[in-house]
């Protein structure tokens, strides 16, 4: 792009989010981009300037692009970059109407958001309803789109992974997605311009359905990042806090190196050792940055001290009373290892305490999950106790995911995931639960994940031997991925939303194995409250489309 003169960059909603996740306006200006515009808004013509279009290859985007050049061109020329493969019919439509204005047209294979070093998102929260709603009319279309996005991730990482899914009659959507991804990967590498056609690499791509672990998104998680997004209103990664009597905002992202260092730390460790956590000037590159920028150091320290204090206030006021009961229900045993024989005795104190309704719903769900479903009579009593007679969808609609709520004979086939023994691991009594996805990651890395339970969609990859890989967020310049990798990479995709605790697991497994990088992604990132709203909305009927005809004389 740098060989062009001053130019305009035109983005759709998705590519705006994509660029915002990995660069700043100053980065764009260094590439001679002086104006950034919204593709779908009315814009003043600038016929003397060239326009770079970075957009998704959708009918809506193509139509907006054509409108920029018909009947009269708004710009001197168009340089078009699609996030991924443009369907032939849309490409032909664009060519037919605007060919003389298009100087460049490329597909660059990056239809995902690189949120963190090891986390990516399809930025599609609506996919949850499209996939799981019994009234969905666009399920197949949504799965196709997600598959295309996953393929662009694999292409960016230069991987052709073996695709695996959970073999389970109750979880069909993961199998369907695995099939789509596998077929699209084969097609992508067949069309690859590289004369040495790529075969399967040693990577594995694990497709995990949200229903496989309904517990992790519901529990109160007490690590810094997960706790913050659960208990505090953080919108667009922006934390609002008070300092010196005035309101301030701080972005919680990869640019904040202190946030990156602290985000997976347990809140108890964070507040018990504030000097080590916030002020330790021996923290490698961070200390050097802070020495050079004392103002920055003070600001970051203030942000995180304020956030940690906020979280502890929430914990002591309300969450502390919930955590023991939640953990006992989730784990099936108390902190001393004694089996919970009567889950209702564990649940009852939560229901009798004046917790807010959402917290009670979360506890009721954990109770039901612990039993693998309950009777209709018992469920009705619980719903009446929580006073959600008109909002029972928060609980009942989990069945649309294949999670048993009512213990009927048809649900007997739903088997709980067998868990790793972690009794020797040191944990806090209020944080004994480990997300199921961590078991899966460790099983794959150790070559222990049963092929009969997690079959490959087609061909198996080469022998697994770990990886020293490039992150989802940034490739190292000047090096090919093969130069940086001595083994294999694990990519985990959660269909239906991923939690912050599950994101943390990817880093923990990577750290524990050193040579193996685990990358995790999903349709979107979820919090307990956002998931409950998504679940509730599954029961809503879609609005009927209708047209109003003029009265005929």
From TrEMBL:
InterPro entries attached to this UniProt entry: Sec-1-like_dom1, Sec-1-like_dom3a, Sec1-like, Sec1-like_dom2, Sec1-like_sf
Highest taxon listed in the record's lineage: Eukaryota
Keyword Protein transport set for record: yes
UniProt cross-references to Pfam families, sorted A to Z: Sec1 (PF00995)
Gene Ontology BP terms: protein transport; vesicle-mediated transport
Signal peptide: none
Keywords tagged on the record: Protein transport, Transport
Stated family: Belongs to the STXBP/unc-18/SEC1 family.
Protein known as: Syntaxin binding protein 3
Species: Cyprinus carpio
Lineage: Eukaryota, Metazoa, Chordata, Craniata, Vertebrata
């Amino acid at each position: 792009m740098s060989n062009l003169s001053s130019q305009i960059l035109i983005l759709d909603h998705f590519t705006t989010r994509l660029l915002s996740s990995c660069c700043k306006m100053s980065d764009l200006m260094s590439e001679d981009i002086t104006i950034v515009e919204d593709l779908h808004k009315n814009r003043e013509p600038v016929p003397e300037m060239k326009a770079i279009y970075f957009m998704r290859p959708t009918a809506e985007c193509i139509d907006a692009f054509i409108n920029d050049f018909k009947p009269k061109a708004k710009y001197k020329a168009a340089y078009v970059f699609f996030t991924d493969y443009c369907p032939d019919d849309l490409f032909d439509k664009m060519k037919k109407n605007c060919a003389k204005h298009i100087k460049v047209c490329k597909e660059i294979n990056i239809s995902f958001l690189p949120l963190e070093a090891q986390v990516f998102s399809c930025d599609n929260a609506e996919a949850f309803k499209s996939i799981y709603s019994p009234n969905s009319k666009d399920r197949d279309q949504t799965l196709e789109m997600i598959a295309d996005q996953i393929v662009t991730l694999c292409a960016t990482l230069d991987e052709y992974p073996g695709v695996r899914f959970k073999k389970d009659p109750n979880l069909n959507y993961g199998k369907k997605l695995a099939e789509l991804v596998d077929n699209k990967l084969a097609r992508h590498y067949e069309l690859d311009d590289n004369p040495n056609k790529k075969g399967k690499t040693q990577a594995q791509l694990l497709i995990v359905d949200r229903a496989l672990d309904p517990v992790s998104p519901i529990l109160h998680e007490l690590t810094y990042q997960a706790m913050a997004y659960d208990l505090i209103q953080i919108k667009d990664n922006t934390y609002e806090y008070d300092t010196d009597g005035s309101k301030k905002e701080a972005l919680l992202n990869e640019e904040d190196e202190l946030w990156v260092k602290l985000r997976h730390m347990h809140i108890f460790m964070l507040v018990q050792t504030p000097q080590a956590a916030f002020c330790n000037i021996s923290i490698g590159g961070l200390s050097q940055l802070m020495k050079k920028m004392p103002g920055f150091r003070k600001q970051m320290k203030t942000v995180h001290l304020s956030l940690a204090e906020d979280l502890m206030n929430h914990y002591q006021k309300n969450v502390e009373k919930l955590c023991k009961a939640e953990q006992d229900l989730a784990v099936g045993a108390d902190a001393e290892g004694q089996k919970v024989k009567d889950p209702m005795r564990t649940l009852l104190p939560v229901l009798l305490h004046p917790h807010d309704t959402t917290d009670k719903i979360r506890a009721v769900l954990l109770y039901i999950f612990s039993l693998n479903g309950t009777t209709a009579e018992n469920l009705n009593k619980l719903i009446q106790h929580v006073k959600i007679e008109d909002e029972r969808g928060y609980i009942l609609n989990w069945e649309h995911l294949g999670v048993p709520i009512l213990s009927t004979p048809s649900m007997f086939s739903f088997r709980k995931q067998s868990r790793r023994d972690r009794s020797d691991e040191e944990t806090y009594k209020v944080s004994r639960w480990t997300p199921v996805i961590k078991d899966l990651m460790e099983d794959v890395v150790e070559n222990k994940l049963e092929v009969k339970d997690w079959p490959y969609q087609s061909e198996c990859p080469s022998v697994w031997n770990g990886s020293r890989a490039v992150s989802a967020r940034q490739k190292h310049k000047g090096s090919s991925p093969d130069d940086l990798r001595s083994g294999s990479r694990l990519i985990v995709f959660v269909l239906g939303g991923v939690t912050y605790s599950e994101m943390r697991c990817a880093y923990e497994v990577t750290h524990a194995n050193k040579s193996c990088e685990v990358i995790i992604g999903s349709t979107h990132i979820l919090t307990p409250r956002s998931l409950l709203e998504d679940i509730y909305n599954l029961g809503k009927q879609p609005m009927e489309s209708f047209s109003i005809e003029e009265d005929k004389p």
